[in-house]
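Q: Got a minute? One more chain.
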Amino acid sequence: MTRALRLAAPLLVLAALCAVPLAGERFLTYLAIRVMILGVFASGYNLLLGQTGLLSFGHGAFYAAGAYGLGLFSLHVSAHPLLGLAVAVAAAALLALFVGFLCVRSSEVYFSMLTLAFGMLAFAVIWNAREVTGGDDGLVGVVRGKLSLLGLALPLGKESQLYYFVLALFALAVWVAHRIRSSPFGLVLAGMRENAVRAAFAGVPVRRYRLAVFVVSAAFAGLAGGLEVLLEGSARPFMSHWTHSAEPILVSLLGGLGSLAGPLAGSLLFVALREIVQRFTEHWMLAFGVILLLIIGLAREGVVGTLEQLLARRGAPEA
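A: Always. Here it is, folded:
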């Protein structure tokens, strides 16, 4: 029963996502896009934290690199969304290649502090380079060009049209993350997470693998940043701030680090809880933080991990 549910669950989730714009609620469609963008961000980050055991506090820099890469490309070269997203992914990956080369030589807390330092450096550069980035005003006026593909020009001006474009890329990103986790590369990453020293003695080039997964994770962040610019029409310097880097960490802990579904479920809970709490109090950040701490404290394996444990205990007597 559990195996059949695992096989059917992705199809049911995809069908539910396809039906969201049919409800006719623009705000619901907007929130669903936000959930999917955060899901892409968190799925890539979980390859680094959940699969490899590396905690980065600077992933907002790669998110911002993707956002500003797409924004500058759209404003000065072409508004084609696919080309802009390709630039976003490339900008994030190239930045991560440089930052990661310097950071993966360290591990544990030193790695985390170095990524935090580079993240805040990126924030300072974006904030002060007003001629290029717009400074504290950010990049504004980014338009959604038509999606020209196979001789067809598909408009993305309406949120319902953008929704299905984001959904397609979201599904592709989740599939890529799944393939990485289940590949020999992903198994090596899991072995490094358990014992990097033993993996090194077994002949695994640990630094190269860490750099590779760091760049891949940053590419996911760049894709998410580019998608947010397409949604909002602007890029903001606080995308690179350490507070934004904390979001995929909270989402991964909330949903669970041990599975692919964890960050996705965490993204849904994170966005939904934030929207609900904001409606009831002006001190929503305090209330939201307390709620997140309670959920993470009570469900140490995350929501998905805790549910899997409960189902396993329920099925044990039957077995």
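A: The mean pLDDT is 88.
Q: Perfect, thanks.
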